[in-house]
Write a structure and sequence with these properties.
single chain; 109 residues; 6-stranded antiparallel β-sheet; 6 strands; elongated
Length: 109
């Protein structure tokens, strides 16, 4: 299997009013595409609507021939943007799949 690492494409795209995608990277493994996305959502205080920071979550998709065959969403991997970017970079560099993402993130944290 030939693994080709692509250049990370980092951008800010509004997903919803309260969600921002801030990291988007791809890895090609033959016909399989692994996609890594970091999602930032506001964290609200329990009592009231004032923002109290950001929550960074990971979304990993495995696509075969353009069809998503596996996915994993991991909510609240960290509250630090720099730490979230570091984790996502490690995941994409290692070619972590949705099936192994929980264990790997647990080891990283």
């Amino acid at each position: 299997m030939v693994i080709k690492k692509t250049t990370p494409r980092i951008h800010a795209t509004t997903l919803r009013k309260d969600q921002i995608e801030i990291y988007d990277d791809y890895m090609l493994c033959g016909d399989i595409i692994l996609r890594y996305m970091l999602i930032c959502t506001p964290d609200f205080k329990v009592f009231g609507a004032e923002e109290s920071g950001d929550v960074f979550s990971a979304l990993i998709l495995m696509c075969d021939d353009g069809v998503v065959c596996e996915s994993k969403f991991i909510f609240d991997i960290t509250r630090s943007e720099s730490e979230a970017r570091r984790i996502m970079s490690l995941l994409s560099e290692a070619g972590v799949t949705p099936a192994t993402a929980d264990d790997i993130i647990g080891d990283i944290l």
